[in-house]
Amino acid sequence: MATTAQKLKLMYLAQIFETETDEKHGLTGPQLIERLAELGITVERKTLYRDIKCLKEYGYDIEKYQRAPVEYGLASRKFEKTELLLLADAVQSSRFLTERKSGALVKAISKLGSKYMAENLRKRLHVEGRIRSQNETVFYNLDAIQRAISAKKKVQFHYFKYDNRKQAVLQHSGDYYVETPLHLVYMDDCYYLVAWNDKHQGTTNYRVDRMKDIDVSEEDATSNASTAEFDVKKYQERVFSMYGGDPVLVTLLVKAPAINTVIDRFGKDVDAEAVEDGSMRVRVKVMQAPTFYGWLSTLGTNVIIEQPQSLKAAYRTYLQGIIEQY
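Now predict its structure.
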């Protein structure tokens, strides 16, 4: 055992630097020798310094800190502290992850930093009352979809929705859906599969965490002009909350208070022209759907549909329907 450990000395030394040191925390020469001894490795001071030099030549950013006493520490690593914090924050605030999976991922992320950083990550963020997915199979579903896309095969799965008793009910009479996967989209804290549906000759969306028994089909994926020309960026720009609908080119008059919100939603490259009163006229293609109307209503009188008149009438009907409920 001791002989094997001796052969792995440099690897163990690198591991000690990665887990126990950073730019603020170092170890002295005697402390490093002690840590190695705990692993069954004997090393002299001169040999230790040669090993440190060897690790530095390999690419480890090991610094000698002129403290009392002198310490050695890993000054930088593949991920900076702020990058690890961003990763951990993204994981812990993602509702599509279960509590167990979120904890496991944060633990894995923490191993990319020192033990001091790991402790900071564990304490830093707690999302109180965060609604989380109850479906542990999301990662397996994502993997199956990616494999199907790579193999240019269709994907088959069961799909469920909740009823008024909060029970998961299989759709499609319990039969498998068999669709051509086009792209995975992350929107509103959930993953969606954008798929081509042969029956309706168009795209449709599925919440990945509501998919069950997913597998790569033996059937080849549909290939046509629509699937070949599918642009996920443009698709995301015109859908709202991944709710399907008919695409329509709309002209919006955007008043000054809503300009930032509209640019945030459609991007800075949106087709727009300035109006003398400080407003902005925007032309953009959107999906005609209740989710678009819902977004529009949050902006009140600051965004007005100018064209087409048919969409304007549909939006008026949508608002009247809400009023009649009250």
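The chain has 13 helices and twelve strands.
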